[in-house]
Specification:
Elements lengths: L5 E7 L3 E9 L5 E10 L3 E2 L2 E2 L2 H19 L5 E6 L5 E10 L9 H12 L7 E13 L2 E4 L9 E12 H13 L3 E7 H9 L2 H6 L1 E6 L4 E7 L2 E8 L3 H12 L3 H11 L12 E4 L8 E4 H26 L12 E4 L8 H9 L3 E3 L20 H15 L2 H14 L21 H17 L1
Parallel strand pairs: 1-6, 6-11, 12-17, 17-18
Antiparallel strand pairs: 1-2, 2-3, 4-5, 7-10, 8-9, 8-10, 12-13, 13-14, 15-16
Helix pairs in contact: 1-3, 3-12, 4-10, 6-7, 6-8, 8-9
């Protein structure tokens, strides 16, 4: 049953849109059955700026993935990023009426739902509510309160907030491309599931995902997400600087960056020169690689310093918050030559490049384990996690809901209780439902 469960991750990025279809094989690894990608034209810095173009690019990516795999895509898990994302910390508590019974999933859900009612700034909406540690009565630092006795359940939460309009625009694009939206996830969280190991998350690690339009950061410590941020610069600003600095067109700047670019100027000698054909009968331009890497270095340094500031704000320099596993770099921008060395030099932390191959089946295509697919692989994993264990149950639940059309009737159905994974995702579903309703009305 489980092997037939297919999920689709849709990464709507600034440079490319990727649709990735996959399922789990018998070893619980992910087998990618189809992938499609299209140039993303309607997205700026992680935010949709042209609806029509984005819809076209999504359709193109989805069609390609469908034709490669022979699978019809119904619904997708979508990632969200952009400079409007911010995160905050909040603690909340509930007083339980029945202190004689042990704490169960419902109590946690009630607590999380209470956080969802937080009043945000106008135009903002809560995307994720992630519990950090719990406190039962006066006992603090509890990782998993389920099964304990207690009258007052308290928790610290990491709350991720985004702009309603941006989230709705993404929903609108997906829906207009003829797809269902099964879930919306923060992109740095998706990339993190794809490239980080459990040990790294325990020890403390900062994941830096350098995309075309944004650089996403997710910090883990003791296995729990502690801080997220989206910085509105990425690989594209480096290309822009090269374009301006060398007076060449964007396509040439991008090629230069990929083929000859380095983040470390000392690497190149003055004598290394690249000649670039001039536009229509003009003289070719000669560019020294030293100059090229000076331009790249200046901009990359700025991006890393921004990220490092966030890492320091989180509290990396305190004894309790030290990130022992250092930094993991992923995303297309992480493939820049000597980037790792520069990051280590600026931050003084160990760094490695994160490839999303850990969870992929052994015989997967080489290209899939490129860091630029980290987010897509993570979104696909999210989609598979969500339903793989409870597919049969979910089908029954759906029938029940169809008959009763009332959420509260779910409790009366004994079958629902078998769900191995608690209803943690239900606010997502509520959120997505709300989005779907909104989009239906917006037609």
């Amino acid at each position: 049953m489980e092997n037939n469960k297919i999920a689709v991750g849709l990464d709507i990025g600034t440079t490319k849109i990727v649709a990735m279809i996959g399922r789990k094989n018998e070893y619980d690894k992910i087998e990618v059955v189809g992938i499609g990608k299209a140039k993303s034209l309607g997205v700026k810095r992680g935010v949709v700026s042209n609806i029509t173009q984005t819809i076209q690019s999504i359709q193109q990516a989805v069609d390609e993935a469908e034709s490669v795999s022979g699978v019809k895509i119904e619904e997708v898990v979508v990632g969200i990023a952009g400079q409007h994302i911010r995160s905050l910390h909040h603690s909340d508590y509930i007083t339980r009426n029945n202190a004689d019974e042990v704490i169960d999933e419902n109590d946690i859900e009630n607590l999380v739902n209470q956080v969802h009612k937080l009043v945000m700034l106008p135009g903002e909406e809560i995307i994720h509510v992630l519990p950090q540690e719990f406190k039962v009565d006066s006992q603090a630092d509890i990782k998993e309160p389920i099964g304990m006795y207690g009258g007052r359940l308290e928790a610290n939460f990491h709350v991720v907030v985004g702009q309603v309009s941006s989230i709705r625009n993404i929903g609108r694009c997906v829906k207009s491309a003829g797809l269902g939206l099964s879930e919306i996830t923060l992109e740095p969280l998706a990339s993190a599931s794809a490239v980080l190991s459990q040990e790294e998350k325990e020890a403390g690690v900062a994941l830096i995902d350098i995309g075309g339009g944004t650089t996403d950061l997710a910090i883990f410590k003791d296995g729990i997400i502690r801080h997220t941020a989206v910085i509105p610069f990425g690989g594209n600003v480096i290309t822009d600087d090269i374009k301006e600095g060398c007076s060449i067109i964007e396509k040439q700047a991008e090629l230069l960056k990929i083929k000859f670019g380095s983040a470390w100027p000392g690497e190149n000698k003055e004598t290394e020169i690249v000649s670039i054909p001039g536009l229509r009968g003009r003289e070719p331009k000669e560019i020294t690689l030293k100059n090229l890497s000076k331009i790249i270095h200046a901009r990359v340094q700025e991006i890393i310093e921004h990220v490092y500031l966030e890492i320091k704000n989180y509290g990396h320099e305190t004894a309790k918050g030290k990130l022992i596993a250092g930094i993991v770099l992923t995303g297309g921008g992480s493939q820049l030559k000597h980037l790792r060395q520069l990051v280590e030099y600026i931050t003084g932390m160990d760094a490695r490049i994160g490839f999303p191959n850990e969870h992929l089946a052994g015989d997967s295509d080489e290209t899939l384990s490129s860091p630029s697919y980290a987010t897509a692989v993570g979104l696909l994993m999210e989609g598979l996690e969500k339903g793989s264990t409870e597919e049969e149950v979910a089908e029954i639940v759906e029938e029940v809901i169809d008959e009763n059309q009332e959420e509260n009737q779910q409790e009366t159905q004994p079958i629902v209780e078998e769900k191995p994974k608690p209803k943690k995702k239900s606010f997502f579903e509520k959120f997505t439902e709300g989005l779907k309703d909104f989009l239906d009305n917006a037609e």
